[in-house]
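Whiteboard transcription, Tuesday session. T.W. wrote the structure tokens on the left side:
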């Protein structure tokens, strides 16, 4: 596997716990590709959603949990580095890693891998927003504080693996 840029997308804080990771395998469907049989660039966020959704559920940040806490977590930033195209019929492993930020936001890095080769790298930043007012939380909300405490205390050890 080759990488154009081995640098991480988000800085790592010196005292931060290891990233939390999850992975999912998703096939490339006919609806994902353009007339050349390669994944259209605008479909890549769907692959990211598969990995990020799996990671969010595993950490207690599912849409239901956020909703119950009166929170939204809209994407504020999305970066994608396209390395090699994904093609119709390939199986794509989406590896998502949540990076400790120590603030009221969620940072996730993604690797998309097919046939043992890195095909794309991506990153998303999500802000926590009050579901009623639409105002961003400048202080970490209680749900996120409880998850951060569990993370810092090793409660997610099964998710703390290095990215591929």
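and on the right, the sequence the group agreed on:
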């Amino acid at each position: 596997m080759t990488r154009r840029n081995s640098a991480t997308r988000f800085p790592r804080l010196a005292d931060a716990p290891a990233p939390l990771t999850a992975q999912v395998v998703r096939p490339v469907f006919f609806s994902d590709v353009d007339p050349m049989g390669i994944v259209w660039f605008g479909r890549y966020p769907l692959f990211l959603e598969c990995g990020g959704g799996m990671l969010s559920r595993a950490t207690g940040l599912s849409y239901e949990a956020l909703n119950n806490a009166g929170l939204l977590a809209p994407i504020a930033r999305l970066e994608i580095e396209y390395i090699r195209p994904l093609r119709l019929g390939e199986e794509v492993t989406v590896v998502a890693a949540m990076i400790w930020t120590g603030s009221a936001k969620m940072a996730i890095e993604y690797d998309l891998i097919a046939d043992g080769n890195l095909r794309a790298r991506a990153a998303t930043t999500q802000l926590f927003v009050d579901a009623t007012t639409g105002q961003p939380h400048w202080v970490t909300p209680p749900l996120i504080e409880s998850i951060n405490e569990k993370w810092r205390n090793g409660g997610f050890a099964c998710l703390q693996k290095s990215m591929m």
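Someone added at the bottom: The chain has a mean pLDDT of 91.
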